[in-house]
Amino acid sequence: MKLVVQRVSHASVEVEGRITGEIEQGLMVLVGFGQNDTTREADYLARKLAKLRIFEDENGRMNKSTIDIGAKLLLVPQFTLYAHTKKNRPSFHKALAPDKAEELFGYFADKCREHVGVETGVFGAFMKVDLLNNGPVTILLEKEFES
Fold it and tell me: Which CATH number covers residue 12?
């Protein structure tokens, strides 16, 4: 499972001219699932994401989490995080099958909601993502448990 986490001043997702998710200060997160991902990876990364201390404290140090500052997450499903780029045309054979990935994305969003407020994009839709990266701060989180 891969997450591309961006600290934002604001972010939104639009599908067919309609805003489907929007946050102010918080984290915009691209979410990708690999073939072997399960709820175990989703549970781990939901906790990690909520507690990730990448917001500045009163001393200007990255020492506060979304929980600490009451920020929200904007989760955007992104199968292209599993692109295999050995050739010029990417292959996505390492990504989880769409039906399973959609189910796992919903599960992951629900697990994140146990910690913080969550908005989402629409699985499988063509989305326009608008954000103002604050920092910029962009972090890659990955977790793969061995079977």
Answer: 3.50.80.10
